[in-house]
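Exercise 7. Given the encoded structure of a 152-residue chain, write a plausible sequence.
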């Protein structure tokens, strides 16, 4: 009389297949999470560009915008006369720094500005006063002090 059940080899095969499927799912989740965080950083950079335009409209130029963005403690903004604008800048910078501790690099010459931040995939995202957003720049591409108006 034969007993019904699974052999050791059958059980090991099932466990191996489950392990392979789990590894594939985990890899997909990690990649998707990284892409989502990069998309969030790019979105925050776009929103900072809009706030820079608002700042320029209120102040009359971009002069001082770089100092606002470079503030290591964004909760203490005094660079914007509008408290709502200062709060929005602080919130976005805090959000960016949580996802990517390296700070946003900003250059401005009064009439134009450029902001860039590293992404989690090793690339750099950049936006400037012309409204363009580049997100696939090489790793060490940052806004230049020689051309503060354009993304590299």
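Solution.
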């Amino acid at each position: 009389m034969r007993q019904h059940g699974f052999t050791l080899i059958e059980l090991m095969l099932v466990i191996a297949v489950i392990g392979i499927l789990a590894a594939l799912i985990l890899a997909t989740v990690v990649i998707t999470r990284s892409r989502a965080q990069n998309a969030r950083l790019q979105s925050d950079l776009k929103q900072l560009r809009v706030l820079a335009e608002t700042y320029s409209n209120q102040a009359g130029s971009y002069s001082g915008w770089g100092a606002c963005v470079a503030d290591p403690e964004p909760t203490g903004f005094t660079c914007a006369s509008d408290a709502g604008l200062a709060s929005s800048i602080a919130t976005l910078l805090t959000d960016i720094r949580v996802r990517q501790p390296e700070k946003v690099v900003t250059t401005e010459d009064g009439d134009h500005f450029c902001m860039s931040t590293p992404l989690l995939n090793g690339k750099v995202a950049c936006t400037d006063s012309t409204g363009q957003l580049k997100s696939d720049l090489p790793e060490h591409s940052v806004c230049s002090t020689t051309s503060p108006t354009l993304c590299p």
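Remark. The mean pLDDT is 81. Students should compare their own answers with the one above.
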